[in-house]
Design brief:
The chain is α+β, with helices and mostly antiparallel strands. It is built from 13 helices and 7 strands.
Length: 302
């Protein structure tokens, strides 16, 4: 896996075509901003720039504000996830072909793939999806609501959920009110419906509402501390403390994979830069001690 700018590794004899001659089973992943070929391939790229260029930023933000980037590096993260999926697909293909292959993975392509339903909305209907902040431009009630001590988020996306929500809030009559009887009417009267719901929700805390509404798609909007202190996070094993050889205990978020037969071994901390270089060169590449020493003396490795 390499993420040098296209063309750089050619100068060192480490391009896919050069290595594939020596090992036809090689699976080689090149990650770049705009792909290995084409007029943009020489450009550098960072996550928020790709969010802007892909159209992703245009659908994120308040209705009357500017398009906003996502605070989490979503393009970088999704490119990493897609890299794993692509590698596994190539490994599976190799079982039948006996050959490896080159995978060209671009941040730009990943950002476009992430457009999902918003991209389809434009491609099919021809209209730019509207920004709606924490709300939804085509659904209601769908957004954040004030309670006695903070906000909860509710995603009431269909008629059945709306009827159940009205009952849970103690106002079953809302479901048959002509102003709210259909999704279109609820969207048209969204400010009024939101106010009526918040008048009820403000009578209790977000924690208590989470329990009362647990049969519905609703939950408290938490700070980072509130989220990571939640008992369910610990129960699911999503927080780990690793002993790092240089800095001691390091808390980290754990793996979200739950395999029935081959559990993830996340008992070790992420390695320091170059920590396993010698092991890889000797045990996998088959270099002798003298070879590794020569590379170190030439400052090829640290």
């Amino acid at each position: 896996i390499q993420n040098f700018r296209p063309g750089v590794l050619n100068r060192y004899g480490l391009h896919y075509a050069q290595l594939q001659e020596k090992n036809p089973r090689l699976i080689y992943v090149s990650i770049s901003a705009y792909g290995q070929t084409g007029p943009l391939s020489d450009r550098p790229g960072f996550d928020p720039v790709l969010q802007g260029e892909s159209g992703m930023m245009s659908v994120n933000g308040e209705a009357n504000g500017e398009g906003l980037r996502h605070a989490i590096a979503v393009v970088d993260t999704m490119t990493g996830i897609h890299a794993v999926a692509a590698i596994n697909a190539a490994l599976y293909a190799r079982t039948s072909t006996g050959k490896g292959q080159h995978i060209d993975l671009a941040l730009y392509d990943t950002a476009l793939a992430c457009l999902g339903n918003m991209g389809s909305y434009y491609l099919i209907g021809g209209d730019q999806p509207k920004r709606a902040g924490n709300s939804h431009f085509a659904s209601a009630p769908n957004g954040s609501f004030e309670t006695a001590n903070g906000k909860i988020y509710m995603a009431v996306a269909n008629q059945k959920l709306f009827v159940d929500t009205c009952k849970a809030l103690g106002h079953p009559e809302w479901a048959t009110d002509p102003r709210f009887a259909t999704i279109a009417e609820r969207v048209a009267n969204k400010p009024l419906l939101n106010k009526m719901m918040e008048d009820v929700l403000k009578t209790d805390t977000k924690e208590n509402w989470a329990q009362k509404l647990r049969h519905l798609p609703a939950g408290p909007i938490r700070t980072m501390k509130e989220a990571l202190d939640e008992p369910e996070v610990k129960r699911r094993g999503m927080l780990k403390t690793y002993k790092h050889r240089r800095v001691g205990d390091v808390p980290m978020i754990g793996s979200n994979y739950r395999f029935s037969d081959t559990p993830v071994d996340d008992s070790r901390p992420p390695p320091s830069l170059g920590e396993h270089t010698e092991t890889v060169l000797k045990e996998i590449a088959g270099l002798a001690d003298a070879d590794v020493k020569a590379l170190r003396e030439k400052k090829v490795i640290g």
